[in-house]
């Protein structure tokens, strides 16, 4: 545990005392409590957002599963839940509960009559910005390493895992995979928390800030030089934009549409029906398999089978969104399911949770649909004998001649 005093440049008597926690341990908790007791600050700032604060306090939170699926973010929440589960299980095994030092800081603040300030950025925004900053290959590597870590402890650096919260775990564990994204996340949150602390000095003369040790230097740097802090609205902005996956998706759809135009142009009813049949079956079966692997309700599996052929032709909607919505309708998750997400003691228990199951159905149905689109297009070309590459070459040559 380390401690640092940062004097305000405007008023020397105003102070921010930064406590950097190195371990979530009884000693660390004691150090945090002693610092607050000794300094008697007017406010105690903690490295939490409202979502994480409520989660630590054990208060009920709504997870808008349907809205998440409609936004196409089921995979993102799944990633977040798996990462939280990963850290929690390691903490339990080594007798450490993530967040205990933050709870101790909040409790001690209440005892000394200090206000509690939540200074971190919303975790949902942080995960979205992190995910959007990754390339497709980086995303695959991260998912692979996360899943590998869930089933094996051989490559886990336990000391590092115990030092920080779920967000620090994310950036540290994956630094080698996506170094620029990890660095951006740490710097962004340092800047965001520093801005909140500087703003709080307008109301409070003394603030004790309890943060992970990895944020201490960044906070000191930004507080000593407020002009270097980016505009807050920029740090809260979540851009969807066009990424490689969007381009790839639209390219595949365009290719498939041209393939079917070429099939229809043959004016051979037998070939057209055969092409459609293979397209329907391959897309439907693989999407249904994805839903079944996730343990979907039979109606959700049937839905995945029936809609995959059509959703594969429209990148604006995915088969997983439709099957996920049906799964949400059939499973009807309750607030109890949401509460139990944070208490799952095994992967099987996590998968049995209705909220997690719905997200898993949406994600794996989409995986099956993507595979079905690629395999289906290839198979249609094989059974129809249509060379789409040659057709494109001929059309392009014809277009050049016209021009």
UniProtKB/TrEMBL annotation:
CDD domains: TraB_PrgY-like
Pfam families named among the record's database cross-references: TraB_PrgY_gumN (PF01963)
Membrane-spanning ranges: 247-268, 275-295, 301-326, 358-381
Organism domain of life: Archaea
Annotated keywords: Membrane, Transmembrane, Transmembrane helix
Entry protein name: TraB family protein
Species in which this protein is naturally found: Archaeoglobus veneficus (strain DSM 11195 / SNP6)
């Amino acid at each position: 545990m380390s401690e640092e005093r940062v004097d305000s440049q405007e008023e020397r008597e105003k102070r921010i005392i930064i406590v950097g926690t190195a371990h979530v341990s009884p000693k660390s908790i004691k150090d945090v409590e002693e610092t607050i007791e000794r300094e008697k600050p007017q406010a105690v700032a903690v490295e939490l957002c409202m979502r994480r604060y409520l989660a630590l306090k054990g208060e009920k939170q709504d997870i808008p599963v349907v809205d998440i699926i409609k936004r196409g973010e089921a995979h993102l929440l799944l990633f977040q839940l798996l990462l939280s589960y990963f850290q929690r299980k390691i903490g339990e095994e080594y007798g450490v509960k993530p967040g205990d030092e933050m709870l101790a800081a909040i409790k001690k603040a209440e005892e000394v009559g200090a206000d509690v300030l939540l200074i971190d950025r919303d975790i949902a925004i942080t995960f979205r910005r992190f995910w959007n900053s990754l390339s497709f290959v980086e995303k695959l590597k991260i998912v692979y390493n996360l899943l590998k870590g869930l089933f094996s402890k051989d490559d886990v650096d336990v000391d590092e895992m115990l030092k920080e919260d779920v967000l620090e775990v994310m950036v540290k564990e994956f630094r080698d995979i996506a170094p620029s994204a990890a660095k951006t996340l740490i710097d962004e949150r340092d800047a965001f928390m520093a801005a909140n602390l500087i703003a709080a000095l307008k109301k409070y003369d003394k603030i004790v800030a309890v943060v992970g040790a990895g944020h201490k230097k960044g906070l000191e740097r930004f507080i000593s030089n407020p002009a270097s802090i980016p505009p807050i609205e920029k740090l809260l902005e979540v851009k969807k934009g066009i990424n490689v996956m969007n381009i790839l998706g639209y390219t595949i759809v365009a290719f498939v549409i041209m393939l079917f135009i070429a099939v229809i142009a043959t004016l051979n009813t037998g070939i057209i029906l055969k092409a459609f049949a293979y397209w329907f079956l391959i897309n439907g079966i693989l999407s249904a398999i994805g839903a079944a692997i996730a343990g979907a309700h039979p109606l959700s599996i049937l839905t995945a089978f029936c809609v995959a052929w059509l959703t594969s032709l429209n990148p604006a909607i995915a088969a997983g969104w439709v099957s996920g919505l049906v799964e949400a309708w059939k499973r009807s998750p309750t607030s109890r399911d949401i509460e139990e997400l944070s208490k799952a003691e095994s992967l099987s228990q996590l998968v049995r949770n209705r909220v997690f199951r719905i997200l898993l159905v949406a994600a794996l149905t989409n995986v099956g649909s993507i595979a079905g689109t690629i395999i289906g297009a290839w198979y249609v070309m094989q059974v129809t004998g249509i060379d789409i590459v040659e057709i494109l070459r001929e059309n392009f040559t014809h277009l050049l001649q016209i021009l």
